[in-house]
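Handout, section B. The chain below has 259 residues.
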Amino acid sequence: MSGDLFSLKGRVAIVTGASRGIGEAIAARFAEAGAAVVLAARKAESLEPAAARITAAGGRALAVVTHTGRAAEVAALVERAVQAFGQVDVLVNNAAANPYFGPLLATEDAAWDKTFEVNVKGYFMLARAVAQHLTRRDAAGSIVNVTSIAGLRAAPLQGVYGMTKAAVISMTQTLAQELGGSRIRVNAIAPGLVDTRFAGALMHNDDLRKQIVARTALGRHAQPDEIAGAALYLASDASSYVTGAVLVVDGGMTVTAGT
């Protein structure tokens, strides 16, 4: 191993949920590190400008409109990435849904189904597709699953979302063990509160946001790019001996909770 450990030159990365927030920040950081990035999200009107911003900054980026909960669209995403750049080396599963905010037992079936479809089934289908692609090439690779500290502890008012994130952690650990022999590393990032539109139910509720920040050692919430650095570490050779890990990036919330 030589050179810049954090370089992604010569590699191709798929990043889902990349039209804004954490996903866009990760894609931009990967492009800066030399990767060709394939940005995926459901809505072209926000996805294409995100890819254009990376291109304008000197990176290589392709936008592919994708609903990650649908198998045909997942397969098409990987195929389009290979057609455009020749291969896929890195996958960041970041697309997520959280349509319901409230008591767990009041969750409607439709909200339950949508959350699991995107947050668990979508992650699995993409991980499977990319792992199969890497195995056919006999190539090493890295899969990074963006989960949440909501998957590590009780998640009041976000119960189903928390369950999906706990499932992703389990999936990460199992895939890490099963794919290690193929030189495919699988890790997860568990962010705390991040200033994104996705976290709007928390960010725009002053009482809840202040409660969370008060229980966070650093005394603040995160910005999306603060999660992107963790993703770059797990995607690059800097983490070549790391697999099955859950990297908590929460400003110290989980270690101070209850104090």
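Note. The longest strand covers residues 184-191. Compare this with the example in section A.
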